[in-house]
Amino acid sequence: MYAFNYQRAKSVRQAAGLLAKNGEAKLLAGGQTLLPTMKQRLASPPVLVDLARIEGLAGIERKGRAIVIGAMTKHADVATSTLVREAIPALAALAEGIGDPAVRNRGTIGGSVANNDPSADYPAACLALGATIVTNKRKIPADEFFQGLFTTALDEGEIIVKIAFPAPSKAAYVKFPNPASRYAMVGVFVAKRGSEIRVAVTGASSDGVFRWTAAEEALRSRFNPKSLDGVAASADGMISDIHGSAEYRAHLVGVMAKRAVSAALGK
To answer: Percentages helix, strand, coil for the chain, rounded to the nearest 5?
Structure first.
């Protein structure tokens, strides 16, 4: 690992100021992606700005029909939260399936969303649930936030402070995990709120998380796994690697989507 300067921010404002002063600085949340990348010498930021001691960045609360989760909230806390389990059990189950206990007790929801790994779980939840990502500068709808592989709408010096998830009437997340990393080879999050159906897919596309609109249209007429019969995801743009071909992942998208709808219906 290369040498770097370590700064422990006391407030979001101070963290943003440190980022502004150091153009190549990186924020340190849970460190589950950043630190291994630095150890492998794939990244060498000159400054790390630690967010761990900033008061108010962690925590879960209910506001109206939405669950609001602080950016520094650990995956384990989302998984075990009574508020999340009651309002959006699919989100709690998603968090419970991330990595292993060590990862869940260090990794943070804000770090995962900001990193936008193409195989991460939380981006699918944000898209499917129609979440709003709240930063120190503005509120960004999930549909506008995720912009491609490891790319988001965040500007320089912009820091996620919390994420608001509207509670759906039905929802479920099902993934086919890589047995070693527990990252999703394909993960599908399905959510129904009123007449709105949203289906988000992670782990499959080389462009990162995306909404599967063909499945959404099929499920609007009838929210049932059989409605997806004959609806196939295209292999174009799908990830192809040692774990599975593009065609294999495209097939998995359909399989996981049907399972997610069944789970949302309690089947």
So the answer is: 35, 25, 40
